[in-house]
TrEMBL record:
The keyword Transferase does not apply. Keywords: FAD, Flavoprotein. Residues 6-394 form the RsdA/BaiN/AoA(So)-like Rossmann fold-like domain. Coiled coil: none annotated. This is Rossmann fold flavoprotein. Residues 192-341 form the RsdA/BaiN/AoA(So)-like insert domain. Pfam families: HI0933_like (PF03486), HI0933_like_1st (PF22780). It comes from Lysobacter niastensis. InterPro entries: BaiN-like (IPR004792), BaiN-like_dom_sf (IPR023166), FAD/NAD-bd_sf (IPR036188), RsdA/BaiN/AoA(So)-like_dom (IPR055178), RsdA/BaiN/AoA(So)_Rossmann (IPR057661). Its cofactor is FAD. The keyword ATP-binding does not apply.
Length: 396
């Protein structure tokens, strides 16, 4: 099988499908090549099967990149409201969970169906279970890019790389996009797992392992960043939204601190408890402010447990310091296996921020997770996929 197109898109995920339908609606002949057996696999599994498809509070400040300005143009031109319009046009019911996060009421399958339906309506061709064996460039003017695949050879003057990052290899993630970028002389910034559970080792793990399943609100702080949400203790370490968020800013050896009483001024709370419940033990009053098992462990290992009336002011200050600035020594992360995103990627210095086109090779575009732009937890990475895909789709 062979074919000539206007645009070849490698990767049928969120960014690739958005780019395809946008280009197709402009009358371009588009082919999407996806090596997995179906498109949108990460969309399907996201948000517990409900797909946190955008965040109404999206701003450039919600993204990590070596160039924090790069994402501004695309995000400004395709906002969460543009995507919501499409969702509503397809009659997909959705709700806001928290902090601007929008989820499908029923299933993430509806988002994939919407994107595929839009692609088909725009005449886009999608080839699944189709692996790229090699790629050549510049053989002729009308077909600058030629993909040699397991389904045949395809050519086009524009090639869009939307192959994602390294996160969740069980979903088919590979480093193909990075290899392609390097083949064309693009710099690829070091990659690592982001939005990922942290692991503990040695005595740190032993102290918490049997509390697996316990969750509590915290404020996690690292490298000048802070996130307030829930922390979940796991068999191997810590997870939950607050930990996943801070993991993108943490690297081994970095100082990580947790406020275990984020809704309170710790010292004021201890003084209030001392005045109101002088005979109660510390573990008892803490157990009313956080899970009892966690409070008990704190009082076994980090805090002296005795009746509240027995503490003097210096001791209360010391305990308040522990509770509001608890030091956590993480040994690593769970890695790409469970990471929601990949940090790093194709260097944005060599891409146009308005079109996503390579500054090195005309007709070559990079979009989505393969680029060095990574969002926070909460729908931001999908919004980057839609925005970058839309930018390239309007430029190819």
């Amino acid at each position: 099988m062979t074919g000539h197109f206007d645009v070849l898109i490698v990767g049928g995920g969120a960014a690739g499908l958005m780019c395809a339908l946008t280009a197709g609606q402009r009358g371009k002949r588009v082919l999407v090549v996806e090596h997995a057996n179906r498109v949108g696999k990460k969309i399907l599994m996201s948000g517990g099967g409900r797909c946190n498809f955008t965040n109404t509070g999206t701003t450039p400040a919600n993204f990590l990149s070596a160039n924090p300005h790069f994402c501004k143009s695309a995000l400004a031109r395709f906002t969460p409201w543009h995507f919501i319009d499409m969702v509503e046009r397809h009659g997909i019911a959705y709700h806001e969970k928290e902090l601007g996060q929008l989820f499908c009421d029923v299933s993430s399958k509806l988002i994939v169906k919407m994107l595929v339906d839009e692609c088909h309506a725009a005449g886009v061709r999608i080839e699944t279970s189709c692996s790229v064996e090699r790629m050549t460039h510049g053989e002729s003017e009308d077909a600058a890019f030629r993909l040699h695949t397991t389904h045949g050879n395809f050519a086009a003057p524009a090639l869009v790389v939307a192959s994602g990052g390294l996160s969740i290899p069980s979903m088919g993630a590979t480093g193909f996009g990075y290899e392609l970028a390097k083949q064309f002389g693009h710099a690829v910034l070091p990659t690592r797992a982001g939005l990922v559970p942290l692991t503990l080792s040695g005595k740190h793990q032993e102290r918490l392992a049997d509390l697996s399943g316990v969750a509590l609100p915290v404020t996690a702080r690292c490298n000048g960043r802070a996130f307030s949400n829930y922390m979940l203790v796991t068999h191997r370490g810590l997870s939950g939204p607050a930990i996943l968020q801070i993991s993108s800013y943490w690297q081994p050896g970095d100082d990580l601190r947790l406020d275990l009483l984020p809704q309170h001024d710790a010292l004021q709370a201890l003084q209030d408890w001392q005045r109101e419940r002088p005979a109660a033990e510390l573990k008892t009053v803490l157990g009313d402010a956080m899970p009892k098992r966690f409070a008990q462990r704190l009082c076994e290992l980090w805090l002296p447990n005795r009746p509240m009336k027995q503490y003097n002011m210096p001791q209360l200050r010391e305990m308040a310091q522990v509770l509001s600035d608890w030091s956590l020594v993480a040994s690593g992360t769970e890695g790409y296996r469970t990471a929601e995103v990949t940090l790093g990627g194709v260097d944005t210095d060599e891409l146009s921020s308005s079109t996503m086109q390579s500054r090195r090779v005309p007709g070559l575009y990079f979009i989505g997770e393969v680029i060095d732009v990574t969002g926070w937890l909460g729908g931001y990475n999908f919004q980057w996929a839609w925005a970058s895909g839309h930018a390239a789709g309007n430029a190819v």
